[in-house]
Fold this protein.
Amino acid sequence: MIGTQAQSESPTQKTGLIVWLKHNSLSYPRIGKLICMSRGKLGTIKQLVEWLKTIHVKGEFLGFVIMKAGEDILERHIEELDEIVQYLENNGVQRDWMGAVMSRCPQLLSYNIEEVKTRVGFYLDMGMNEKDFGTMVFDYPKALGYFTLEEMNEKVIYLKEFGLNHEEVGRLLAFKPQLMGCSIEERWKPLVKYLYYLGIGRDGMRRMLIIKPMVFCIDLEKTIAPKVRFFQDIGIRDYAIGNMLVKFPPLLTYSLYKKIRPVVIFLMTKAGVSRKDIAKVIALGPELLGCSIVHKLEVNVKYFLSLGIPLRILGEMIADFPMLLRYNIDVLRPKYRYLRRTMVRPLKDLIEFPRFFSYSLDDRIVPRHRAVVEKRVNFKLRYMLASSDEEFAQRVEAAVERRTRFESGLMAETDDALSLSGSQTTNDSLVDFCGNEVVSSDYQTTDCFISKKPA
């Protein structure tokens, strides 16, 4: 045992202990409580304090750990406590972390070794390895020692209702053990009901839980609801808000006044997005709300304006493709240079199809441009890029076939015209690439038609 049989300590010894404890950062009120807990066995206090210092419990936490480690902590054998520490160390909790772990969850020292093994096994049975378990305990020691086993089991069962299996719950808790500190009745059930009314089903909540489990730890009324009301105020419908949250769960962890509102204001005042389009932009690209205004959004806006795109037109491009503002300038420049110099396309083509920047230069843009040049056909950017390889090949083949038929028909008509008198034709003829004749009295040229002058 830490203590021995009670023996009467002299006033000098008591005064010395008090001075020593004070020197180890214990306050006088805690020293008084410790002396009462010792029941006259003052030596046990010094022994326990010395042991706690060996596992790196810092001075200011010594009294706190002793007070919270259970009423019988002064009656425990040092060997028992060493066994607990050694067992945790063998399962991934580093020795250097032990002081921080015990300082935040002294209750671990109140259990016997069998109870500790049961609690450790609770997590290891969910597929955690030693490294994950150790970092989990260091990150949130209460997940191991603060809650009853019954509470821990109830929370695991509830998390499984989102469609997670045992191992997935284990990975989730290893990543965000703070989930164990959340109340099912007071936090999770109200949040699930709120998300359900936004049109988010079980699969959507499962995605949110896996991608950003922190969402299930934050306060509904103080943190989540005000953001949802803000999105409603700018014109985003409830079902679209639900889609946003499923698509980009970290959105709910951003500050409304320091992050979300400033980005919305920037888009409307500096990026040309109109009041009627701002809801569409945020609904389609909620990731924009996570971008830095100074280091990302403002830089991209300046780049597009430098290309000669008017601010209003830029706002329309962003409304069509919000991700336009998320690309790095180093990615945008080569694509724009290729569009203008090699493809010899006007700026208007880019304005009409801002998604051009979303395609890989080497894997999509260059190969398809070379294909259309080789086949002597031409497409708008949308039809050239926004299709699968098979669809693109079919489109090129069809265009080549139309051109071939047109050229063949034109040559035949030219030969016929040479053999006929000049007064035989009274109307202009217009022939498309599909071989159909269109009667017209005016000269005209379109993408699909070519006019034939009267003989």
In short: The mean pLDDT is 82. DSSP finds 24 helices and three strands in the chain. The first strand starts at residue 428 and ends at 432. The two ends are 119 Å apart (CA to CA).
